[in-house]
Amino acid sequence: MKKIISILFMSFAILSCETPASQSSDFPTFIDSEELEALANTIQDALNSGDVETALTYYADEANWSFPNGVEVEGKEAIGEMLKTTSTMWDISNSEDTNYLAFEGSDENEEGEEVRFRVLMSWGPTTFTNDDTTITIPYHSVQIFFGEDNKLGWQAGFYDRTKFVEYYDVDIIK
Amino acid sequence: MKNFITILILSLAIIGCQAPNADPNGRTLIDPTDLIAVADSFNDALNSGDVEAASAMLADDVSWGFPNGVNIEGKDAVTQMLTVTTQIWTTIDQQSGETNYLGVTGGEQGEEWTALLSWGQATYANEANSVSVPYHQVTWFTEDNLIGAIYGLYDRTELVASYDEDPIK
Questions:
Q1: Which of A110, A128, B94, B161 has the most CB atoms in a 10 Å sphere around its CB?
Q2: CA B92 to chain centre
């Protein structure tokens, strides 16, 4: 999925810059982030309640999750296994001070089908809580949703894992 | 991860090729070329250990936010921090991998701000250690393109493990 999408959008970028007069609704544009925020919150709420199965219904089969230590979890099944571990360990909440930026666009995939993508980026303090401890850290998230049904295809977090690694007996993201 | 970051930024580059469009909060994409030039110069100064040159690019009221929540405020304090870190690391390269940029401006009239967002890889190295991590940075600029604030988000685990005493606390 990575390779296909990468080539797809690289070509799209080149074409669009060569033909600026051809602006159309297909071009990416900034959007109100509220709908994607709500979607991201729905997924997080499901995870916080331990309902990994519901959370996974929002993920694409070929979804990827990138961690700040360089670990990448590939595929919905592997993400599900990871989430089963992390969701039992942490309740996660974003600060009301979180800033969001969102945009959307669309292009054709290899099969000639039009694929819509929407991106949600956020910056703000995020708190991880369980019965033993609370960790609040500055956090940057990038989530890319694909298709009309907004399946989450990729997400990445940029944050300091020092306190997590100190807390874990065995690092669960490795 | 690089591929997806590339998708993201290329997609944003597409927006940059079109007429500027603001989001509901009035934020607009801008050509980041001038901002990248400052970021490159700052990175080059750090990478060569030239703290004086790096400091000259900072606003007097600059602040530097770290991913562990530490915030260093003021040019003198930031310069002191750079002096310490450049003595620890012979290489401080915040653009050690392919770096992608996005320029954004926004704010109310009279309180406009300009920022450079970057995604890539940072490398910190000395004779004993070399640490490379995925790196995201937001750099705010003053009207005269001095660096007004830096906010870096990355995993410090390996850096902390390499210190006898964490210099960022």
A1: B94
A2: 12
